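User: Good morning. I'm curious how 1,6-di-O-phosphono-alpha-D-glucopyranose would be positioned relative to this chain. Could you predict the structure with it bound?
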Amino acid sequence: MVARPTQPIAGQKPGTSGLRKKVKVFAQPNYAENFIQTVFDVVERPENATLVIGGDGRYHNRTVIQQAIRMAAANGYARVLVGQGGILSTPAASNVIRQYGASGGLVLSASHNPGGPDEDFGIKYNIANGGPAPESVTEAIYQRTCEITEWRMVEADDIDLDTIGTTQVGGLTVEVIDSVADYAALMEKLFDFDAIRAAVAGGLTMSFDAMHAVTGPYAREILEKRLGFAEGTVKNGVPLEDFGGHHPDPNAVHAHELFETMFGVAAPDFGAASDGDGDRNLIVGKGIFVTPSDSLAMLAANAHLAPAYAGGLKGIARSMPTSAAADRVAEALGIPAYETPTGWKFFGTLLDAGMATICGEESAGTGSDHVREKDGLWAVLLWLNILAVRKQSVAQIAEEHWAKFGRNYYARHDYEALPTEAANALVAELTASLASLPGQSFSGLTVAEADSFGYTDPVDGSVSLNQGLRVLFEGGSRIVFRLSGTGTEGATLRVYLERYEPVGGDLAGHTPDKLADLITAADAIAGITRHTGRTEPTVIT
Ligand code: G16
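Assistant: Good morning! Here's the predicted structure, ligand included:
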């Protein structure tokens, strides 16, 4: 074992989902090592613990994995499980942690952010329940990064990451495991694969865009091999270190080819995509985009059609900026609805306590208590299971849903790569004005309430303040303002817009038209153009 002297490096504070920085930052001497050592110093683990390591295959993945293995060997771990080729999707890593009783895992990903030598990398620590470390742990990790004086490793060569098998690194046993097998077996347990296979044999078609990211091998195995969709159903199925030069972000901008297919004349019945690390999903029917908030609500309303959820749901949880569509489903089912801050880590306690079964976020994440991460392919398979049983199109299912529950028109406007000072000034000014907003009218909308969202975890009592600024209007429309916690360049302002149209109202409207007054109001309330100089968002999802 060797101890390498080091010094604290500024800025190693985990954000919404771990530490995300440019590769060039991560590749600096001691940068990744300092962070990994602080994780090993801080987290709870028994003697002879098992650690899971896997990543989304992006550039720098293998370098950090090899170093993390040498460091795990020097830090008292007994066993490391690593995905073949260094690959594990984020939900698959969560499953491996749970299935093999690991004390935790290092998930190497910057999710939907682009990859390559000039792009992004990330490290996230997941705890023994398989989920992202809660804020108490990430805060302790951060504090430790400010004090670190050395990191430890054993002197050892790189291991062969590409061949399944076992290697010794010092006293550490390293097992290279099949990245897909355990996850695919879990999906077969949750869903009615026979019903989906029968629907495929009966003509159900789909297109899945893996975006040259981690889900390619998972989607090929499950969709093409096990469910019988035609070869070629999975597009861009080979994971590439730079995702083919694209953003592996499943939205209308970065998955536009899928949108063109699904809105074209020869559209298949169902379209889906997943992101860099496989935890996000995009759902598109023939000629219809299903917003993530609506998808959560529709999945929850129909989950009983899949074997795993046939007994009903215990509760539904959503992040605060996610639309309230799922709350109406929870009410109809007579089960609790929870509203948490942005970040999958906030769902962990509810899932562990058996208070919620299905969770979701506007940021294209949906999942259940089968793992402790959001799960892109899980959402796709639950949709397929529902389509197979209901024998209806996505559009029919959506229309029936809105006719029963009303419709939450919804969009998110992102203003990316803003100067940090401008974004902070906007938030500070808006925060200061919150108390004076109620009673004022903007574009014909009268503010009923305005606040800064705070959350008290109902399970462990932990408190998280300043989780987004909410402006609620009379009649149920809403605008939420937040700064993203996952960007790596300047600041990203997210503006979440929502209008509820009750049953019997205009349920077939065009979303931009339905939100036009809210969009104007957002600028008047927050001074977006005044602070940032921007007149248009960078991305609308
Ligand atoms: C992460 C988190 C999600 C969050 C999303 C966006 O997702 O796990 O809970 O909703 O970031 O966060 P923000 O609005 O702070 O950028 P992912 O897919 O990037 O890991």
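The longest helix spans residues 511-526. Residues 16-17, 111-112, 279-280, 342-344, 361, 363, 365, 484-486, 494 surround 1,6-di-O-phosphono-alpha-D-glucopyranose (CB under 6 Å).
Let me know if you'd like a different ligand tried.
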